[in-house]
Amino acid sequence: MEKITFVTGLAFLLTSLSAQQVSLKPYGIKSGIIEYAYSGTKVGKGTLYFDDYGMKSAMLEDAVENGEKRKGCVVTSGDYQYIWDPDDPGEGMKLKNPIITWLAESSKGDIESFTESMYLKMGFARAPDEAFLGKDCKVMKGSMGKVLTWNGILMLMDMNIMGRVSHQEATKIQTDVAVDGKHFVVPKDVKFSEMPSMF
C-alpha cells in the first residue's frame, strides 16, 4: 500500500510542480498545456497548465476510479499545493511540497534529476531513451512498470502494483503558449486542511 501511495503521489507531483525561487526552472519549457488520458484502475482525462518554467502549475482532472467519480484541481503556489473538488468547493487539502527544498539545494535544480533519484530508490533504472509523441523522452524502468519524461514533464506512466494497473499518457502537447492566469488562482472560499508530506 505504501508503494501505491508513493507512486500516486510522485505522479501527482510530476504533473503539478512549483517553486518560490525565481532562479529555479523545474521544466525545460517556459509554458505549456498538456492533455492526458488515464486508463486502468482510473479512467478519464486531465490537463496540466504551467508557466514560468513550471514555477506556476495547475492540474485539472476528471476521472472515474473504482466506480467513483473523481474530479479535482491541484494548484501549486509557493511552498504549497492546494487540492480541491470544483463541484464541491467547501473544503480542500494543502500539502507542503518537499521538492521545492530539494530543487533549491540541488546543484542540478531540475525535476528530472529529482524524479530519477526517487525512482532509483524504488528499484527502477535508466533505460534507453524512447520517442513518444515525437519527443525524445528519458525512460525509467522497473519491475512495477516504466515512466517517460521530456524536459521534466511526465509523458507516460505505466504501473502495475499489487494488481492495480495505472496508465497515464500525454495525448496533446502545446508548448510556449500563453496560459491564462486564472488557472493558477486558489479559491478564497475553500477551507484547506493541511495534510502530511507524502515523502
Give a verbal description of the structure.
With 199 residues, the chain is α+β, with helices and mostly antiparallel strands. The protein has a single domain (2-184), classed as outer membrane lipoprotein receptor (LolB), chain A (Clam), CATH 2.50.20.10. Helix content is 16%, strand content 51%. It is built from three helices and twelve strands. It has helices spanning 2-14, 98-105, 111-121, and strands at residues 32-40, 42-51, 56-65, 68-77, 80-85, 88-96, 125-132, 135-142, 145-150, 153-161, 164-175, 191-195. A twelve-stranded mixed β-sheet has the order 7-8-9-10-11-1-2-3-4-5-6-12, covered by helices on one side. Strand 8 and strand 9 form a beta hairpin. The longest helix is centred in the N-terminal third of the chain and has 13 residues, at 2-14. The two termini are 14 Å apart. Residues 1-10 and 16-22 have low confidence and may be disordered.
